[in-house]
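User: I would dearly like some help making sense of a protein record. I have put the entry right below:
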Amino acid sequence: MPTNLPPEALDKWAEVEAAHGQKQKLQKMQEFLACVPQHKGTMKLRGQIKKKMAVIRNDLDDKKRKGTGKSSGGPKLFIEKEGTAQIALLGDTNVGKSCLMSALTNANVTVSPTPYCTREPVPGIMNYMDVQFQVVEAPALMHGSADGRAWGLQTLGLARNADGLILMVDLSRDPVEQMELVLGELEKTRVLVAKPKGKVDIDRRHAGASLRIMLFGKLLGTSMREVEDLLRSYKVNDAIVRISGEVTLDDVEDAVFESTIYKPALVVANKLDVKGAQANLRVLKRYVNGKLPVIAVSCERRTGLDELGGALFESLGVIRIYTKEPGMRVHSDHPFALRRGATVGELAKGIHKEFVSNFLFAMVWAKRLRFSPKKVGLSFVLEDGDIVEIHTRI
């Protein structure tokens, strides 16, 4: 059930949302927590806010040390995204993350048997089918990472910020124990790798617009009126709220705090070449039970790695769209990478916003079309490999 916060706490959360800068947000979160009553119904919420505050404090401390010329001793909270999608590489220590980075990307990494050798996130670019994936090796997870142990909050912050996850295990050890460690720490910070039955997206406008709720799925145990009342109680008055799938009132409240987030993921099972690996691989697949793709590899022998690019491509729902200028005979060799279900309008916006405002029509070349090219509008849904020629008024 929703936490039923008192009015003063709801007012304080509105101030958190309106805060500018990390220091002000941290202060407003402290004030918000002071207004939240301490009982069983608010335990989850209080824990989530405290973790967010800890991440902000660590980041502020890191910036302060850098300002004084001292080393922070900890990794950056975020890595700027590059390429088609950012993938966070997670796992226990010594599972072979650095070895995988060396095999797949251009990253300069040190492969070492020393536990917890990676203490800062390391980004690298992986090329696959005309697109580039940015893989970021995160410092190893351990029991207590979600509670702030070592650099756990920074690693889990990277996971929340990434577009997808690679969960890596070592087949020379118990794979189920490793999976339970990684999934357990992710779950504590409300990062899900199993696709939820429903999703709530809140697009805050902060421009005096009215609250608009778009229902594309089904509400469970609640009504549109209760959803609207809950959102308004949190001062969400100027937003577009998209609800898809099966959603409860708790899911709506979680979305207000941006606490639960889904990340597409796959499992990389390393050290396939060692004794007992095949038996552990079977154990791992039974545990995963088809809910996540499992790619078995040997980083040391460079086997099985060819499957990884395709698995990432599929799990992220990436499509490649090639563009062609009017009057040109050939299309560009460098595609736009969009998500499955993207429209001509999204492609046009990605090229330049004026392509939308001045749009006339588009021509699409595709094998699936009965007549190709086909003249289409902004709402036409694209598929992988389509060639698009956009015509504008100017």
